[in-house]
Amino acid sequence: MATTLRFALLGAWRALRLRCPLCGAGGVTRRWVTVVAQCPRCRLRLDRGEPDYWIGAMLFNLIAAEILFACGVLTVLLLTAPHPPWDALYWGGIAGTIVMPIVTYPITKLMWLTFDLIFRPPHPGDFAPAS
Predict the structure, then answer these.
(1) What global pTM score does this model have?
(2) Are the C-beta atoms of 54 and 108 separated by less than 8 Å?
(3) 30, 36, 43, 122: most buried by Cβ count inside 10 Å?
(4) How many Cβ atoms from other residues are within 10 Å of residue 15's Cβ?
(5) What residues pair up with 44 in beta bridges, in sequence order?
(6) How far, in Å, CA of 82 to CA of 85, rounded?
(7) How far apart are CA 122 and CA 129, in angstroms?
């Protein structure tokens, strides 16, 4: 249990820094929204070799974007009570729901990989052959 929690926290920290959740190597993103096919150090396939692997990452992306958006709205409401700027919240909400999933995409994709590695530890088929 403690090892799993340690890996979860370490993997999440690595994902937040855009690093491989398994070994911590950098260089797992190309541009902002593209995650490379495999880790340059440990050769872990970052999509785990499954055709619809990205669906879990999309779910994590949606959840993360909505949580960040809700926290932002709540913060504005608390800081400006009793007269919150409703127009700014409305237009900011529209912009936020468009921008946040793009901003959080590579992080949430690596978070999904961390989550998946907790429940399905890597096996030899998850690593690309050395080239």
Answers:
(1) 0.82
(2) no
(3) 43
(4) 23
(5) 127
(6) 10
(7) 14
Task: Enter the tokens of residue 106.
Answer: 């590579």
Token pair, residue 60, equals 């994590």
Among all chains, which residue has been given the structure tokens 């919150």?
84
82: preceding bond cis by omega (within 30 degrees)? yes
Where does the chain have alpha helices with state H? 2-16, 54-80, 86-119
pLDDT in tens, 29-39: 988 778 898 99
Residue 85 DSSP one-character state: -
Q: Any idea what DSSP says for residue 26?
A: S
The residue written with tokens 């998850």 in the block is 126
Residue 20's closest CA among 109, 110, 123?
110
